[in-house]
Amino acid sequence: MDYENIYIEEENKVATITINRPKKLNALNKRTISELHTAFKELDEDREIHVIIVTGSGEKAFVAGADISEFADFSVAQGRELAAEGQQLLFDFVENLSTPVIAAINGFALGGGLELAMSSHFRLASDNAKMGLPEVSLGVIPGYGGTQRLPALIGKGRAMELIMTAGMIDAQKALEFGLVNYVVPQEELLPLAQKLASRISNNSPMAIKYAIKAVNAGFKYDENGYSAEIDAFGACFGTEDFKEGTSAFLEKRKAKFPGS
Questions:
Q1: Catalytic residue among 70, 115, 223, 251, which?
Q2: How large is the average pLDDT for residues 16-45?
Q3: DSSP 3-state assignment of 98?
Q4: How does the average pLDDT of the chain come out, rounded?
């Protein structure tokens, strides 16, 4: 696929996806969502890529929301289809990806932008970042998982307030709420993301895959997280990564995980 709205850089087992619609503050339109799906899918299938970082171009915005002009005249059925398709193609897809995804929030993360960041496995923010779900000010609600992931991350009461007021919080408040793991000056954001990605990439890709699956299971109404953990723990014993990791430990050497 020829990418129009994103670009990808790869180095040392880490891929960085940059959403590149600066004139629209990197807003998500249908093409961008489709391009992101393809990029995440291809990178997840690439055994040379162990971590994915997603960020926005420029210094103003990670993603400032969805492209409202695309759906302002939609019907009820079209609105439902928009949310269902978007969740399947991108937001749920990213959350359940086997490759860990770090969101580097470099400015505004509003609406679909915050929902994309929340779909990632964890988040870092620059000190100028602002986050929120302003959808109710437009007569709609978050439709890409925001009503579910935000309460899971910051608690029901705080999420209700943020959603119902259509307000924004700054990076320090997001850190206090547990929405992001770190806040740093903008020039330090990608270096920190890359540093964390490098640490992750030294570990077993298979174990990380099963850890993501087990953690996610604990947040799903139709799954038992503890049972999922037991199954995932057992599955690790059948991997080459487990054989290499335990052998390296016993032989007092650094493991070289094959990722299988």
A1: 115
A2: 96
A3: coil
A4: 96
Tell me, yes or no, if the pTM score tops 0.90.
yes
CA 185 to chain CA centroid, Å, is: 21
CA separation for the pair 21, 57 (Å, rounded): 7
Pick the catalytic residue: 35, 95, 135, 244? 135
Note the pLDDT tens digit of each residue in 48-90. Answer: 999 999 999 999 999 999 888 888 899 999 999 999 999 999 9
Give the phi and the psi of residue 167 in degrees, each rounded to 5: -85, 175
Residue 115 known to be catalytic? yes
- Whether 5 contacts 35, CB under 8 Å: yes
135 part of the active site: yes
Report d(CA 51, CA 13) in Å as an integer: 7
Vertex 205: Cα angle to 202 and 208 (nearest 5): 100
Q: What is the CATH number of domain 6-201?
A: 3.90.226.10
Helix residue ranges, H only, 105-170: 112-119, 146-154, 156-165
